[in-house]
Design brief:
This protein has 606 residues and is an alpha/beta fold. The protein is built from 19 helices and 10 strands. A 6-stranded mixed beta sheet has the order 6-7-8-3-9-10. α2 packs antiparallel against α3, α2 packs antiparallel against α10 and α6 packs antiparallel against α10. The longest helix has 53 residues. The two termini are 68 Å apart.
């Protein structure tokens, strides 16, 4: 896409969403623009007929043609407008689906990439506030089609004028007339082109200030921030920032308004002068008997249309030029390659979930950074074992899980599933063997059943069983709509708000429902006290008896039951073993952490 002109590439993309959009647009625009020119021509002919010969039969024919023609054009225009509306809706739906699909299938590392997130935000904000990007491009194309059709129809009208002029014989009067008209049109075109460039910079400032205001409004409207805003009286600072952004917007808008006013003065004067000259020349031709009286309307309309259309051409092209960066952003988002989904191997189906995973000298640093988050990780574990990953905050625990689930690929080294590099497996198949509950897990404003099953249709009995296992059974009994109860109130007025603990249980049920051979709990209970966390972990350990379970926690007491504990420190595994083994090594990191936490808990209970 990006190798071609961005506007051409964008139009090709939009055409693929609805191939009939642009043909229908042309047809619709033609019949919408035809009516005024049709009436203009016939009105002039009717007036000429009345003034000259007053041929009643011809006059009646002209009136009938006018009435029937207008009716026919109106019917066809109505049909085409409805068809175009359908095409426009279809294009928007398919484009939105394409955009959402792109977002949902982005590699996770791109989803977390700051540049990609900023790109998505720019696309969304520019489209919402100023209709920039593909929307403005479509508006511009429609305007260009309308202008082109108007010019063609006006030229057809004007052709008769030039034929009559020069049929009357050569005259310097004709030449002078043409020179004056052309000179005024050229001035309008040149001045309009310069004017749009001058206004463009100010328009960009106005757009940016509107974006800033919108971001502040989002913060004001976000109910998730409502508690903090009220408790810490953040309303004052928010309003101060909003007023500042509003003042900038008002100042930029006034500058643009002032520039537009000053710029339009010469255009208005030229337009009035041009109109006056046209009337004078046409009237002179009428008095000379070259034109009919009705031709005043027809030929004045022709010259005015040509002038306005040519000026509009340059205005539209200036808007397209100004819109180019937004179209490039739009295309750049779709051009982001998928690097993860290149594997072709299928995941082997083993009885008893006989899988093993090995980290072989794995090191990792995040994109656009120099510091390594993980260094030389070597570990092997198989299905059915229970592991704990412990360490202080920032030691690399969550990053380790992201690599394990292939949300990122190692910078160095490799990760193997049953002896095969995981990059060789089909990406979606590989993801299917993991159920993960992250610390920052998300539930959606869907029904309870859909949240657990992650699907529109689901096995209700299985969902209920998983909720019971996760300790949500009693709460489910209180819900009048059962599994159909909507969580939160984003979409449904009767949606329910759930506590943090209830959300954790639903997330655990979701992990169980997937029934993957590997289950990972990445500090989903960090907000709970150590005893509650330990109870959840031990209960979950019993539930997931035949699966590989990996617990991530900075609380060592919660993971004492695990078959092996891996201790992370500054991006490396510094120790590995059972709790009983590790706690005996007084020089080890685990011993230091264990005693530090034990002292804290003892002081709490004192």
């Amino acid at each position: 896409m990006s190798k071609c002109n961005p506007n051409i590439s964008a139009l090709k993309l939009l055409h693929s969403f609805c191939p009939s959009y642009f043909p229908v647009l042309v047809a619709k625009s033609f019949f919408n623009k035809l009516s005024p020119y049709f009436n203009l021509y016939l009105s002039a002919e009717i007036v000429n007929e009345i003034v000259k010969t007053l041929d009643k039969e011809r006059l009646i024919v002209l009136v009938i043609i006018t009435i029937v023609g207008n009716f026919t054009i109106a019917v066809i225009s109505g049909i085409l407008n409805r068809v175009f509306g359908h095409c426009d809706t279809l294009l928007n739906q398919r484009e939105a689906a394409f955009y959402n699909r792109k977002t949902l299938t982005l590699d996770y590392n791109d989803l977390e990439n700051t540049e990609v997130r900023q790109l998505r935000r720019k696309i969304t904000e520019s489209a919402m506030i100023d209709n920039h990007g593909r929307q403005l491009l479509l508006f511009a194309i429609e305007e260009l089609v309308n202008i082109t059709i108007s010019v063609v129809l006006a030229l057809i009208l004007g052709l008769e004028m030039f034929v009559l002029m020069f049929a009357s014989g050569f005259s310097w009067y004709h030449i002078m007339y043409a020179i004056v008209i052309i000179a005024l049109i050229v001035f309008n075109v040149w001045y309009s082109f310069r004017a749009e460039d001058k206004i463009g910079d100010v328009s960009q400032q106005v757009s940016q200030t509107m974006i800033d205001e919108n971001r502040i409004d989002e913060a004001v409207d976000c109910y998730n921030m409502g508690k903090d805003v009220r408790l810490y009286r953040q309303d004052k600072i928010i309003m101060k920032i909003k007023n500042y952004a509003f003042d900038l917007h008002k100042k930029a808008f006034r500058i643009m308004e002032s520039k537009c006013y000053r710029i339009n003065i010469p255009l208005n004067i030229t337009g009035i002068l041009l109109q006056a000259i046209i009337y004078i020349f046409v009237c002179i031709y009428v008095l000379l008997g070259i034109f009919g009286v009705g031709s005043i309307i027809k030929y004045v309309g022709f010259v005015e249309t040509i002038t306005e259309s040519i000026t509009s051409y340059f205005k539209v092209f200036a808007r397209i030029k100004y819109n180019n960066p937004f179209v490039k952003d739009y295309l750049a988002y779709f051009d982001i390659p998928q690097k993860m989904d290149k594997g072709t191997l299928t995941i082997p189906k083993h009885n008893g979930n006989e899988y093993y995973i090995e980290f072989r000298d794995v090191s990792f640093r995040y994109p656009n950074t120099e510091a390594y988050v993980l260094r030389h990780i070597n570990i092997r574990f198989k299905a059915g074992e229970k592991f704990a990953v412990v360490g202080q905050n920032g030691s690399g625990k969550t990053t380790f899980i992201k690599l394990l689930c292939r949300l990122y690929d190692p910078t160095e080294g490799e990760i193997l599933l049953n002896g095969v590099n995981i990059q060789r497996y089909n990406y979606n198949e590989y993801l299917s063997i993991f159920s993960v509950v992250f610390q920052d897990f998300k539930l959606f404003s869907f029904s309870l059943g859909q949240n657990v099953a992650s699907a529109l249709r689901y096995d209700a009995e299985k969902v209920i069983d998983c909720l019971n296992q996760a300790g949500f059974g009693k709460r489910l009994e209180t819900m009048s709509n059962g599994l159909e109860t909507s969580l939160y109130k984003d979409f449904e007025e009767d949606g329910i708000e759930i506590s943090g603990g209830e959300a954790q249980k639903i997330a655990l049920a979701r992990a169980l429902y997937k029934n993957a051979p590997f289950i990972i709990l990445d500090e989903p209970t960090a907000a709970l006290d150590p005893i509650s966390e330990y109870e959840i972990y031990t209960k979950f350990n019993d539930i997931a008896d035949n699966k590989t379970v990996i617990y991530i926690s900075h609380r060592l007491a919660s993971c004492r039951f695990c078959d092996m504990i891996m201790v992370f420190d500054d991006g490396s595994i510094v120790q590995a073993g059972t709790h009983d083994e590790l706690v005996l090594n007084e020089q080890g990191k685990y011993y230091q952490l264990w005693n530090a936490q034990a002292k804290y808990y003892n002081s709490e209970n004192a």
